[in-house]
Amino acid sequence: MPVVIAVVASAALVSTVAPFGGRADATPTCATGVAASNPFGIASGWTEFIEGSGHRGSESEGAIAWGGNLDANGMTVGTRLTSGSSDPTLVVAGTHGGFNLQKGSAYLSPASGVNFNGGGHYLASNPVDFATAFAGLRALSTSWGAAAATGTVSAGTTGGNAALVLTGTSASLNVFTLSAGDAAALASGKHLGLNVPSGATTIINVPGATPTIAGQAWLGSGSSWSQAADGTIKGAYAGLVWNFPDATAVTVSYGAAFPGTILAPNAAVTIASAGHTIGQVLAKSFSSNYETHLNNFPSEACVPSPPSAPGTSDVTVTKSASTASPHGGDTVVYTLTATNVGNATATGVSIRDQLPGGVTFVSASPPCTRSAGVVTCNVGSLNAGASTSVTVTVTANPIAGAGPVSHPQATHWLTPYKAEAQVDLEPGQQKSVTLACTGSDILSDGQFRVDHVDQGTGAITDVRVLSAQSTALGTWKGVIRNDATGRAQAKAFIVCLPARTESADRQTGYADSHQHALSADAALVTTTRSYGVGRSTASLTCPTGTVAVAPGFDLSSAGATLVGSETGAAHPRVWTFTLDVTAPVTATFTARCLRTTTSAVYGHTHELLLTHVVQTVSVPGNTASEGNEYQVICPDDGKGVVATFELPSGVTPFGNDPRLKARAFRLYNQSGTAKTATLDLVCLKDRTSTEQMGTDDPVPVVNTATVTSTSADANDFNNSASATVTVQPGAATASIVGVVRVARSGAAMTVLSSMPGTGVVKLRVAGKVVARGTVKLRAGSSATAKVKLSKQARRGLARLDRVRVVLDPTRGRTVVKAVRLG
C-alpha cells in the first residue's frame, strides 16, 4: 500500500519555518483583545527597523532595515535567520559601512561593502516603504498607548533587589500603563519583575518624552524569579512590547539582557549598556554597541482594539506529512496549503516547492507543473481568509540496508582545521566575535583565550567571557568584556570538521572519485537554568548514533565562570558543564550532536573514529600572572577537535589554544596551594573506518515550500514552511518509481537504487511472467529498466490499469509492487 503524506495542520508533523526569523503562528483565540495579523505591518519580521540614521557597533541576529544612514563597520547581520538567498534581509537607504550578511540579500546605495556568506546578492531596488511603515507604527503606538490597563503594577523584590512587579493573568493580552513615578523608579535603576503567562501579548506603556530604563528584568512570581535571558525570553515572550508613544528619546541602561520589542516610532533610541536586546527595535533612530537578538513579535497575536489597518493581503503556506517515517521506496504525498490571513484579496498567488535530495518526483495535482526539480503551482487569487491546497507525490529514495561488503580495506582521509581572530579590548569595552567555517563544514569547537592586560592596569581575571556558542552548523559567536582599566588582548578560535571526507584511499572500483558527507543535527540540544552563589552543574545528552561536540554557554551577566566543560569516553553523548557562581546568574548551555556514521554512497558508509585523551595536571599554588601552560596531545593518527576540562575551586581557566595535534590550556592559581586539574582532548582519527555495507541510521529529508503573490503582502516573513520526513533504512535497496510506460515494442519504468549492481525486472499478470529484462543499477540515482513485450502480452496489458512488477537486485531483497500502467 502507498504511504500517503498529506500536509495538514498537524502539530506532531508540521514544522513551520518563517525564512527571516518571523513567526508563522496559528490565529489565536483571544479572551481579551482582538486577533490581528502582523500588527507592525511592513515592519513585521525586521529585528531592527529604523526610519532614519544611527550607529551600530555589534551584530544583529535578525534582518535589519534602515531608512537613513547606518554607521557600521564589519557588522554581522542575520546569524539566526533561515532565509533564502534572494530574500531581503539587509536594507540601508542612506550611506553605509561594511557588513557580513549570513543569510539573504541586500539593498544598499551604493551597492557595496557586503560579504554575502549565505549566497545572497545585491537587490536592484529598495523593498521597504519607510514612510508608509512609520505612519502605521505611529498610529499603532498611539492606539496601544491609549489602551485600558489590564494588569497591575506594584512594589516588590526580584532576585534580592527592589523592583516594580507587573502582574497580569490573561493568557491573551496584558496591558500595563506606568505612572510618571513608576517611570522615574525604572530610570533610577529599580529592577522590573514580569509575572504574566508565557505566550501572551504583553504591552508596557511608558510615559514621558525622554524616559530611561535601567536596572535588570526578571521573570517569575513570589520568591521564584529568573533573570531575563535568551533561553527564558525567546519564543515564550516574543509578544513582550515596550511602547513609548510620547517619547522623542529613549535610553536603555541595563546591567544584563534587555527583553522585549522596543516600539518608539518618534524617538531616538540609545542602548547605553545592556548584555544585548532580545526583540525588535522599531524607532526613528538607533544607536547601540550591543547585539540585537532575534525574537520577533508573532505574526498572529492578541492586541488591543483596533487591529492592524485593513486592506492588505498576507499569504502564508503550511506543509505536513501524514507519516513521519516512510521506508525507502514508499510513495509520499505532500500537501501544500496556501492561506490568505490578511483582510484583502491576494492576487497572483503561486506556491513553489523545490524538491530536496532524498525524494524523486512522481506527479503533482493541477495546476502544478515541474521543471528541473521545482514544482510551481499558480493558484490565482485568494480572498481574505481563503485557502487552497495542492499535492505533490514523490518516492522516498531507498537507503542502503543490506548487501555484501565490496572493498573492506577502503578508508577516507579527514582533515580538520582551525580559524582564529585577534581581539583587542579597550577598558570597559564588550565585543562580539563571529567566526565561520568554510562552506558547509561543521563547527566542532570554539573558545576564547585571554592573553594579556596592559601592565599595572588590571589582571587577566578582569576579562570576562560572557558567551561562547555555536550559532549554526558552521558558525560560532563569542562575547567578551574587559573590566580592567587598561587594554586587553585575547584570541578567538574555532575548530572545523570537513563537510565531506576526501576521496577513497585506495582503488575501490568506483574510479576513486566518491566522497561521504559528514552530518550533525541542525538543532542544538540546550538547557537554560538560573543559579545562586556556589558551584553548580548541568548536563546535555545527544541521541543515539551521535556524539556531543561544540559545547557552548551564554551567561546573563559576569557573575559566573565556566570551570568545567566535560564529556567522557564511556558516555560521549553526554556533555556536563560546571559553573562557579559569585552572583545570581541565568545560564544557557548548548551542544551540537555529530553523527558518527557518514552518508551512504555506493551502498556503504564509514564510521568516524574518535579517541579521548585524558591528562591530570598539578597546578602550583602561585602560577604566572598570565597562567601556566599545559598541553594535551592526540595520538599520531588523530587531530584534536574538542577540548574538555574539569577544574577544582581556586583554579581559573584563561582559555586554550588549538594546535590540532595538541591543545594548550592556560590555568591560573593564586590560592597558595597546588591543585589537581583534569584536561582532556577529543581526537578524531585521520581516517574513517573501513566500509560498512548499509546503514542503521535514518535519513531526515526536509522539504520547504514558499508562497508569493503579485499583490502587496503585509508580511514577507511568513511565506515559507517545511515538512520533515525521516526515511528508514531496511533490507529494500531498490524501488520502482512512477508508472510502467507501455510502447509498441516493450515497456519501460524508472528504477531507484541505493546500491550499484544489476537487477532482474519481471512483469507478472495473473501470476504469470509476461516479460523480463535486466537493468544496470546506479547507486544513489535512477535508471530506466526496459523489457520486451510479445503481442499477447501487450493485449493482456491493454485490459489492465496496473501490473505487478518484480525487481530483484543483486544486493538487497526482492521488491514486488503493483504499478500503474501509463
From TrEMBL:
<feature type="compositionally biased region" description="Polar residues">
    <location>
        <begin position="310"/>
        <end position="324"/>
    </location>
</feature>
<feature type="domain" description="Choice-of-anchor A">
    <location>
        <begin position="39"/>
        <end position="294"/>
    </location>
</feature>
<feature type="signal peptide">
    <location>
        <begin position="1"/>
        <end position="20"/>
    </location>
</feature>
<dbReference type="InterPro" id="IPR001434">
    <property type="entry name" value="OmcB-like_DUF11"/>
</dbReference>
<keyword id="KW-0732">Signal</keyword>
<dbReference type="Pfam" id="PF20597">
    <property type="entry name" value="pAdhesive_15"/>
</dbReference>
<dbReference type="Pfam" id="PF01345">
    <property type="entry name" value="DUF11"/>
</dbReference>
<dbReference type="InterPro" id="IPR026588">
    <property type="entry name" value="Choice_anch_A"/>
</dbReference>
<feature type="domain" description="DUF11">
    <location>
        <begin position="314"/>
        <end position="397"/>
    </location>
</feature>
<feature type="region of interest" description="Disordered">
    <location>
        <begin position="304"/>
        <end position="324"/>
    </location>
</feature>
<dbReference type="InterPro" id="IPR047589">
    <property type="entry name" value="DUF11_rpt"/>
</dbReference>
<protein>
    <recommendedName>
        <fullName>Choice-of-anchor A family protein</fullName>
    </recommendedName>
</protein>
